[in-house]
């Protein structure tokens, strides 16, 4: 008789499955700030690069397996028992803690740029798993949201083997991304200039507002009344040097990337980090400049963004 009652008593001490998932999601979210600002752990052991990357890959695979199991058991009925849920939750939590621990084991002297890439990959995995758990307790049983969230975790884990393995490779990866972003911004600016029509909307403006005498006079004189949607001659004079500046930024980044590829040394960790740190400022500045040239143009904003974008003004 006592043996028949024991399992019920054990289950009654645990929260319901969905409540356990809600608690797990909170625990995973609680880990994220520490990963964002966490420092490398001090150790007297010599860093073994091969061991680190092997452990990181294995940790990512363990997270992927835990995500698969959790998604499978909570995408069908009946839901797991409280005891089973506890076991699955512990597996997820342990897998996430393990990959965070591996990230923390990467010393700063291996390169800040490299650590940032590993940190970003780790954050994607932890955040993705937290989101998956949240979706599972909100919409248990199979749903499109479950699969989307699971795929996000799986894809984040699959990116781990693709992370550059040293600081030079990491620097080249970041520089290549910056070049591509500046190239896209430059192409968008050129397209905007090519498509610019100072008389766009003139006819519709005339049809919609025949009662405004002042507006009619401006239209008759050849000046469009929708000044917020076109560039004035003064605006266009300002945009030409802006395009030249963006082209110079793109060329500068390409030269930096080529120089790092041809002349950079893997042991020049600090120098590579400095190059990336300075170059990293160019792409956001180019984006700000590109956004500021769209009408209605604020000339002061364009001039401020132009100074920030100027590659010759970098320290």
**Tally of helical runs:** 13
Structural class: mainly alpha
Question: What global shape is seen?
Answer: flat
Measured between the Cα atoms of the first and last residue, the distance is 80 Å
Structure description:
The protein has 13 helices and no strands. With 315 residues, the protein is an all-alpha fold. α2 runs parallel beside α4 (82-104), α3 (49-73) packs antiparallel against α4 (82-104) and α7 packs parallel to α11. The chain is flat and about 75 Å long.
Main features:
315 residues, mainly alpha, 73% helix, disordered N terminus
List the helices and strands and how they pair.
Elements: H1 2-12, H2 17-37, H3 49-73, H4 82-104, H5 112-138, H6 144-158, H7 167-194, H8 202-208, H9 213-220, H10 233-263, H11 269-279, H12 282-292, H13 299-309
Helix pairs in contact: 2-4, 2-5, 3-4, 3-5, 3-6, 4-5, 5-6, 5-7, 7-10, 7-11, 7-12, 10-12, 10-13, 12-13
